[in-house]
UniProtKB/TrEMBL annotation:
Upper taxonomic lineage: Archaea, Methanobacteriati, Methanobacteriota, Stenosarchaea group, Methanomicrobia
UniProt-recorded name of the protein: Methylcobalamin:coenzyme M methyltransferase, methanol-specific
Segments forming domain Uroporphyrinogen decarboxylase (URO-D): 7-88
Superkingdom, taxonomy of origin: Archaea
Species the sequence originates in: Methanosarcina horonobensis HB-1 = JCM 15518
Keywords, ordered alphabetically: Methyltransferase, Transferase
Any single biological process term in GO: porphyrin-containing compound biosynthetic process
Amino acid sequence: MADRDLRDCFLNTLHGKAVDKVPVLSVTQTGTVELMKKSGAAWPEAHFDAEKMADLALSAHTIAGLEAVRYPFCLTVLSEALGCRVNPGR
Protein backbone atom coordinates (compact mmCIF):
# COMPACT_ATOMS: atom_id res chain seq x y z
CA MET A 1 0.00 0.00 0.00
CA ALA A 2 1.42 3.40 -0.99
CA ASP A 3 2.02 6.02 1.71
CA ARG A 4 -0.73 8.21 0.24
CA ASP A 5 -3.18 5.30 0.51
CA LEU A 6 -2.12 4.76 4.14
CA ARG A 7 -2.71 8.43 4.91
CA ASP A 8 -6.12 8.41 3.25
CA CYS A 9 -7.10 5.23 5.08
CA PHE A 10 -6.04 6.74 8.40
CA LEU A 11 -7.91 10.01 7.77
CA ASN A 12 -11.01 8.16 6.53
CA THR A 13 -11.01 6.12 9.74
CA LEU A 14 -10.82 9.30 11.84
CA HIS A 15 -13.77 10.70 9.90
CA GLY A 16 -15.83 7.52 10.39
CA LYS A 17 -15.73 6.54 6.72
CA ALA A 18 -15.54 2.94 5.51
CA VAL A 19 -12.04 1.54 4.97
CA ASP A 20 -10.77 -1.76 3.60
CA LYS A 21 -8.07 -2.04 6.30
CA VAL A 22 -8.18 -0.63 9.81
CA PRO A 23 -5.03 1.44 10.47
CA VAL A 24 -2.74 0.14 13.20
CA LEU A 25 -0.59 2.26 15.47
CA SER A 26 0.87 2.27 18.93
CA VAL A 27 0.24 5.43 20.90
CA THR A 28 2.60 4.53 23.72
CA GLN A 29 5.56 2.59 22.35
CA THR A 30 7.13 1.24 19.16
CA GLY A 31 10.79 0.96 20.18
CA THR A 32 10.90 -2.82 20.45
CA VAL A 33 14.11 -4.84 20.72
CA GLU A 34 13.46 -6.38 17.28
CA LEU A 35 13.03 -2.95 15.64
CA MET A 36 16.15 -1.70 17.43
CA LYS A 37 18.15 -4.57 15.93
CA LYS A 38 16.68 -4.18 12.44
CA SER A 39 17.02 -0.39 12.33
CA GLY A 40 20.48 -0.29 13.89
CA ALA A 41 19.25 2.30 16.40
CA ALA A 42 18.97 1.17 20.00
CA TRP A 43 18.39 2.62 23.42
CA PRO A 44 19.68 4.47 25.27
CA GLU A 45 21.47 6.19 22.35
CA ALA A 46 18.23 6.58 20.37
CA HIS A 47 16.89 8.81 23.15
CA PHE A 48 19.67 11.35 22.69
CA ASP A 49 20.76 11.12 19.04
CA ALA A 50 18.23 12.70 16.66
CA GLU A 51 19.21 10.53 13.68
CA LYS A 52 18.95 7.31 15.67
CA MET A 53 15.67 8.47 17.19
CA ALA A 54 14.27 9.11 13.70
CA ASP A 55 15.59 5.77 12.38
CA LEU A 56 14.01 3.81 15.21
CA ALA A 57 10.74 5.74 15.09
CA LEU A 58 10.39 5.36 11.32
CA SER A 59 11.14 1.63 11.53
CA ALA A 60 7.66 1.16 13.02
CA HIS A 61 6.34 2.19 9.61
CA THR A 62 9.05 1.03 7.22
CA ILE A 63 9.70 -2.35 8.86
CA ALA A 64 6.58 -3.17 10.89
CA GLY A 65 4.08 -1.45 8.58
CA LEU A 66 2.32 0.64 11.22
CA GLU A 67 0.54 3.68 9.83
CA ALA A 68 1.74 6.08 12.51
CA VAL A 69 5.17 6.98 13.86
CA ARG A 70 5.71 7.55 17.61
CA TYR A 71 8.51 9.68 19.04
CA PRO A 72 9.97 10.52 21.46
CA PHE A 73 9.77 7.10 23.01
CA CYS A 74 8.57 7.92 26.49
CA LEU A 75 6.80 10.52 28.57
CA THR A 76 9.93 11.69 30.38
CA VAL A 77 10.19 14.42 27.74
CA LEU A 78 7.33 16.15 29.56
CA SER A 79 9.23 16.03 32.85
CA GLU A 80 12.40 17.28 31.20
CA ALA A 81 10.48 20.16 29.58
CA LEU A 82 9.36 21.18 33.08
CA GLY A 83 12.97 21.21 34.30
CA CYS A 84 13.19 17.83 36.03
CA ARG A 85 16.37 15.77 35.82
CA VAL A 86 15.77 12.33 34.39
CA ASN A 87 18.09 9.40 34.94
CA PRO A 88 18.08 7.59 31.58
CA GLY A 89 19.12 4.28 33.14
CA ARG A 90 20.54 1.67 30.84
